[in-house]
Amino acid sequence: MESHGRLTQFSNYYYNEGLRCATVNDISGAIERLKKSLRYNKNNIDARNLLGLCYYEIGECVLALKEWVISINLKGEDNLAAEYIDDIQPDITRTGRFNMSVKKYNQALLYANEGNEDLAIVQLKRVLGLNPKFICAAELLALLYIHNKQLKEAKDVIENARKVDANNVTLMCYLKEVEEELKRKEDTKKKKSKSDIDIGTVSYESGSDTIIRPSYFKDNATITSIVNIVFGLVIGILISFFLIVPGVKKNARQESASKLVEANNAISTKNATIKDLQSKVDELNKKISAMDQTTEDNASNMSFYKSMLAMYVSFNNGNYIEAGEALTSINESQVDPDFKETYETLKVEVNDKYCQILYASASSNYNQGNYEEAITVFEKIVKLNPTYGDGNALYFLAQSYRMTGDNQKAITNYQRLLDECPDSGKASNAKRHIENLTR
Amino acid sequence: MIDFEEELKKFKPALEVEEAEEAIRNTKIDDMTDILQEMIKEAKKATLRV
Question: Of B30, B33, B38, B40, which to mutate for an interface test with A (greatest number of A Cβ within 10 Å)?
Fold first, then answer.
């Protein structure tokens, strides 16, 4: 327990150090100390929340979100992390400000690695427009400016970023490099100025302008004028060739780079929107198919209850044929379990009456030699109740088939009678007929 | 003098919101207490073996 107490003390010490760094804008220092604090005590919620805030401050929203989510998991109630997450929620959606800036940064990094530094610079400027505190983006932009010898721009970017993270080591290295380079340039300029004096020029201030003129004049006016005109023309041509044309070219290149970046941005935004819409479409399609299924089920249930009602009404009115026919159209799997017992009772009563009528009709047809009609009706009876009349229905069905010359079906039904009603009075006859027919 | 190529290699892609869930799931939050407990367990096992 004592060791645990000491670990907690270390954790608190580093938390306090981290807090102190954070208050003087030393975010890198704060992050380093807060990570140490959490290494000593992962349950130090204040340290974890502050670490999240530090990440948020340097534009690393996903890392901030990660720390806050872990913080809420460790302490669910009375935790500031929940408020922080609520606050940044609108910006961290798929098309939110932070996520777009991260996507653009990753794209810029890709451009830089591919050697498209102009595109990368344009993209990074946009990133910093969306998320001015995104230190990684500032570091990369400064590096690209230094590589392109745009030292003043690099210095501006670094100084702005250091307002957020004062002691960032990378930025400090870049700044040192920029300052050394600027100093080197300044020295070269001074040396050049000195050499001008050596070759006989005199400089003096006139208002805010510096005038440089030769230290002595020689009056050879005509030749000098011609030489000057020729020299002026040459200089003019050279200026237009070396200064104006590259400028125009650079502008055109930058404009096309900017347009390309814009097009890429539009594509990535549209892709994100398409993804969102596609997921909505999928969701709606699922809902539609679920509703279709429900509608089908409802229609089927409605048909079932209609048949049930028709059967019940017919049965009550003594119209047993209609009741029996309605019963055959009912799908028994749809019968509600609570209603099953009543249904079975009703079914037995209806079938009994229906089969009596059918059997009378079938017997009459059979006796009059109308075997085809008899077969149709006996089939109905056998379908409802295969053992009806102690197997008589099956026996006379087989007989009817035999009489019409369909011996195969006759044998099948005799055999069925033997299988389902082996004790029937007609069993011995059936056996005999099978023997005769198979002989 | 900064070596541009080397310096550029230090930059890694930033995490996007879509990757947040996986990043949270893969985070190890063990602290010193967890490590000490693990060490005590191992020491106990070693003692039992002896």
Answer: B33
